[in-house]
Amino acid sequence: MSISCNVAIIGVTGMIGDILVDVLDEHDFSIAKLFLVDEETAAGGRLMYKGQSQRVEPLERFDFSLVKVAVFLGSESMAEASIPRALAAGCTIIDASGSSRSNAQAPMVVADANPHVLSGFVAPGVIACPDSQVVQAVLALQPVVRESGVQSVAVATYQSMSTLDQDAVEGLALQTGRLLNGQPAESGALAKQAAFNLIPRTGELDEQGFTRDETRLGEDVRRILELPGVSIAATCVVVPIFYGTAAVIQLRTREALSVKRLATLLRKAPGVKLLDKAAADGFPTPVTEATGSDAVWIGRLRQDPVDPLVLNMWIVSDNLRKGVVLNSLETLRLLIKDYL
Predict the structure, then answer these.
(1) pLDDT band at residue 1 under the 50/70/90 scheme
(2) Of 49, 126, 201, 292, whose Cβ has the fewest other Cβ atoms within 10 Å?
(3) Rounded to whole angstroms, how far apart are CA atoms 35 and 37?
(4) pLDDT at 156 over 90
(5) Which CATH architecture has domain 134-319?
(6) CA 207, CA 184: separation in Å to the nearest integer?
(7) Domain ranges in the chain?
(8) pTM value?
(9) CATH fold of 5-130+324-338
């Protein structure tokens, strides 16, 4: 198996750029030579990597034969246009854009939860990484699934503007500034005012009344945790913060599980930190604990007073760092170590 290999990371500018550089500097991912790549309109700038200034190369002219693995962090359309060319050049693809999630031949990986799905992987090929909402939900649910099984799950996400795109982040800043200065908020990336508001729906509804993100969350959690037939109902809410994400999870187990036992399981779970105390500040938030953290933080553990099979928890994480960049690069580490 490889000790290291050449890697291209595609989609490195915008919100991802600084976080990507920080994660690369703080961890060793067995990269021999790194190529930073983005669409031509965003290329040409420079990012610091391991103390060296490195140029961002244009995707449209990038030679994928130079690398063994290509990690796609950008948009779905960018990945869809370029993955076939990378595969033809012999690259293995780690796709965090969402474009490969419906590919049944592509294992979907949360590195801290289901690395075993790579056991049958043959390079070159495609590996899918899920959305940040899925990553945090999977890491919170997996210890319970293993210990007592689950009958059903209800998830309500509270997502920052950065879970949408850069335009949404900038739109929130503009609306907030205008409102604080006594001016009307101009319409932004969403159909309604985002500043000082909550948006319980993004995108069109399907025949059952769910958005695409809500449907995908349920499907991908079932797929990763191998829970066919288990009801996982999601409501995705956008909240007026710039970065970070949170969720409330209510689940019904197959066997009763005490809060004390749940806390023990979560403390031992990879990729998770527990903060669940009676003190006034004994809970995690997206800003104070999750920002810049490599963990999914969990708190507010409760057992339903009527039905002992029902548990509730609050989870937060840094959506860009933990949910996108770190999970993709941890998957890269697994791939290089055992499968290339």
Answers:
(1) low
(2) 292
(3) 6
(4) yes
(5) 2-Layer Sandwich (3.30)
(6) 35
(7) 5-130+324-338, 134-319
(8) 0.94
(9) Rossmann fold (3.40.50)
